[in-house]
Amino acid sequence: MSLAESRPRPDGPVRGRPRSEAVERAIIEGVMKLLEDGVSLAELSVERIARTAGVGKATIYRRWSGKEELFIDVVRAVEPADPELPGVCMRDDLVVLLENLRQRGLASRTSAMLHNAHAQMKSSPRIWAAYHANVVAPRRALGLEVLRRGQRDGELRTDVDLELANDMLVGPMLTRAVLRPDAELPEGLAEQIVDTVLEGLRPVRSTAS
Amino acid sequence: MSLAESRPRPDGPVRGRPRSEAVERAIIEGVMKLLEDGVSLAELSVERIARTAGVGKATIYRRWSGKEELFIDVVRAVEPADPELPGVCMRDDLVVLLENLRQRGLASRTSAMLHNAHAQMKSSPRIWAAYHANVVAPRRALGLEVLRRGQRDGELRTDVDLELANDMLVGPMLTRAVLRPDAELPEGLAEQIVDTVLEGLRPVRSTAS
Lengths: 209, 209
Known about the structure:
The structure is a homodimer.
Chain A: H1 21-36, H2 46-53, H3 57-63, H4 67-78, H5 90-110, H6 112-122, H7 125-152, H8 162-179, H9 189-199
Helix pairs in contact in A: 1-2, 1-4, 2-3, 4-7, 5-6, 5-7, 5-8, 5-9, 7-8, 8-9
């Protein structure tokens, strides 16, 4: 996957500082090139990244506190961007959120670099925690917000814990995308999960027949 | 966790061969000791295991084809055993299956050795595949069998794909137990998930009030 396919993020690791988009791209592309060449996270160094990107080490340190923070931004640049929610009804917003998880799952399967980056993050507790705080937690908060609105608008049972409801919705998709890398992620899976979780697995009492 | 807490498995890596339970235990305990001492899977060798267990290398090779297969048996010896299903109704069997996943999640949190063993397995594609084939796949097949019986007995919608239904049930528990190590795994969670997934998240049409 090339960087041209990725979107720039509005929020980066260093806030409120003017920055050159082009330099940042060159640095991120440099890390991607190194990762694609099979360089591991342990072997990555700011010096080596600087050399590959054709910038000075100070230029990198002005933007990121170290290679770990930079690494997370590289992953964010390659992963599908967080979605815009239509905001019309809970059901449709949930479908968009789950579709984004499906796209992330597909990206991790098709991009060896991303797959490798995820694996490396998981083996480093510090980076995993930072990725979790910067990427996973905000996404989860967004899902909970959608569910809260759904409860308010009468689209979601009010007697179900929101954290549990969220796990019931994202759990099946994450299980397929992350834990079962051989499982299918077909088009329409997001709708299927959301609608079936809302409807329940019990046989429908026959009122129409 | 001591080996005394673990149950011997009826099926081992080598079938139809008479074996000494005591020797096998000594070998498995030897690997556990090495793992607890912080020895990594990469550093483990059959020679070192043999020395620790006080047996010859040939004794190990008579039982396991190599350290990878032995490692999987060590993990199985420490993990909670697969449950006996009551077999009365689908709902109760599902609760037992999910409760077992919850117990496994708790075990992986409280046993540093098990946690470490899981992490090491995941970083080795070959061992992970073997663990999947020997431990995860049969457990999944059991869940699908319970759901199939549920469909036959009218406890489960017949218009839902069984694989999807299974992911809808185990997904929320796995998400908490595996993907969100900081999430709570309270008592009663298995019942809560099963009943809510069966019932659905849509507000109940008020007929009783």
